[in-house]
Amino acid sequence: xxxxxxxTFMAWGGFILAILFEYVGLxxxxxxxxxxxxxxxxxxxxxxxxxxxxxTIRDNEEDKxxxxxxxxxxx
Length: 75
Hints:
It is built from 2 helices and no strands. The chain is mostly helical.
């Protein structure tokens, strides 16, 4: 395993707390519902984008290690 269980717990805990605080803040925001909805969609898009980006970067790095010959082939 690359990470210890404590580090994995810390990463998931931080992720869950960040999402929780984001949406608690939105819930308590004193703005019309359409403004809250705009921010909620923006926050959800940011969360999904971060997950996809980290997976793409990880996959690309693993591919460089496991398949170094693929870098020299034309796309």
